[in-house]
Amino acid sequence: MELLGRQETWNITYDHALGETASWFYTRIRDEAAIYGRRCAKTNHVLVPPRAFSDETLLPTTDWVKVGPGGRIEAFTMVYEQFNNLPDPPYAFGYVLLDGADTALGGYFKGIDLTDPHQAAKKLAIGTRVMTKFAAVRKGEMLDFWFELEG
Amino acid sequence: MSGDRVGIIGIGQSAFRSRRDDASYPDLVREAVVLAMHDAKMELDAIQAIVYSLSPDAMVGIGNAERLGVDAVGGRSKPFLRINTGGATGISSVAAAYYHVASGMFDVVLTAGADKVGECGDSQTVLNKIWDPSYERPLPLGTINMLAMSGVRYMQRYGMTEEDMALVTVKNRRHASLNPNAHLRKVVTIDDVMTSRYISWPIKLLDCCPQSSGGAALVLASERYIRDNNLDAVWITGVGHAAETYWMGDRMGTNPTAEHADAYALGRSFEKSYRMAGITDPAKQVHVAELYAPFSNTEYHSIDAARLVARPGDSIPRLRDGEFELGGRIPVNPSGGTLCTNAIAVTAMARVAEVALQVWGRAGDHQAKGVRLGIASGNGGDHQIFGTMVIEA
Questions:
Q1: Which residues of B touch A8 (CB under 8 A)?
Q2: Most C-beta atoms within 10 A of its C-beta, which of A45, B17, B93, B322?
Q3: Size of interface A-B (CB pairs under 8 A)
C-alpha cells in the first residue's frame, strides 16, 4: 500500500540566562581579553570554565584566578562531515588545559591545515603547547577566543 | 519476597531498520510488547506495572512521547513511569523494573519502548543540545566528536590504532550478519572501514552506529511468581549504576577523577553489579557480554571497564587475537551490538535482551556455545551515566 509521511521542523527560541559566574567570565573575555577560572578553597582546584560550586565538595568556589593564555592540548578532533545546524567542515576543536587551570576548556584550533588528517593529527597531538587568541572585536562569548599552536 | 531473585520471562525485539514507514511510533512500541507477551505466554492483565523506556523526545519528534506509549503498553489503570538516562535509558528501565519487583511491591512488571531515529534527520543537532547553554553549546559538540576525543586519548594512553578500531567493526558486522534483528548486517573488511570517509578523526563512517528504528520490551517477574506458575526464566543477579561529572574537560587536565579515555563510572557500575552477583574474577567468570559501544573505539574502554582483561588497554591485543569473537574466549556483542543497531531509547535494553537470550540458549544463529552467565551495559549522557547487569541462566 502507499505509505505517507509528514515533514515537520522544530524551531524554538530560548533566551537563556547565563547566571552570575558565566556572566563575569564572559565580560572579562569581552573587556580584558583574559580567561579566568574559579578556585575551590578546599581542593585548591581551579575550574575552567568557571563554576559557582565544586562538584567534588559541593562548596561554593571562592575566588577568580586568571589562567592562560598558554596551555597544552588535552583532546582534539577534526570534523570532516557536514552536520545540519553545525559549522561547515573541516574544522578542528578540542580541549586545552590553560596554564594555572586544573580542568580543560573547549575551543576551536585554528591556523592548521586540515587537508591531510594524519598530518593535522600529529600537529594537534595531546601535550602540544598552544596560545589563546582573541578576536579584535569581542561580544563576550565562547567564540571570542580560539587556540593556535605556540610559536 | 525480599531476597528472592528477579527473572526475565519474556523478550520482544523488532527487526531494526533505518525506517519503519509502515508503523507509527506507538505501533512500534506495541509490536515489541506483543512479542514479549507472546514470549512470556501471558495476557496483558497479568502486568502489574510499567516502566517506559524513552530517551530525548526530540529524537522521535514528539514531546513527552510516553503519553502515546501508555496505550501501546496497555497502561490503563496501571502504575506507569518514564525513564530517561540518554543512551543508558534501556538498561536503566530494566533496572527500574527490577527495583519494582525486588521491592516486593509487584510480581510482574513490563518495560518497553521504541525509537525512530531514522526519521530524525538531525540526530547530531539534537545531541548538540545536550551541552550546557552557558559554555559549551556554541562549540560544535556532538556524541561522535565527544567519543572521537575519548578515542584520541585512548590511542595516546594505550596505543590503539585506526586498524584496531576497524577490527571492532569487522567483528561486530560479522556477528550482526547472523542476527536477523540487526540493522547493519553486511559483512565488511578492514579495508572497507579504513577507506570509508572521516566523520570526526579518528572515527570514520564505518566506525559509526546507524540511526535505527524499532522497539524492545521485557517482562520481569518475581521468583515466587515464576515458581508458582511454572514459568521458564533467566535471572538478573547483578544490577549497577554509576554517574560521573558532566564536564568533559574535567575528565582530563591535572588530576581527573574520571579519565575521558576510559569509562570510569562504567567500571564503578560493573564493580557494583559484580559484587551483587558474587563475581570476583570477571575475566574467568563472565561467558558472554553485550557492551554498549556506538563507535568502534568505545568497545575497547568498555571491555576494560568490565574487567574482561587484566588491565586497561589489554583489550587491544586480546581483540586482535580474536578473544571477543563468537567462538572466542568471551564473545563481546554477538548480536552485532550498538555499532550495528542503535534505536537509542531501547538500545541498552537490547543489550540486556540479547544477553538474556544468550544465557537462555535462544539466540539462534548468533548463539555463543555453553554460556551461562553474561553481562550487559548502557552508556548515557555525555559519556556520563552508566548502567550494568549480570544475567544468569
A1: 61
A2: B93
A3: 134
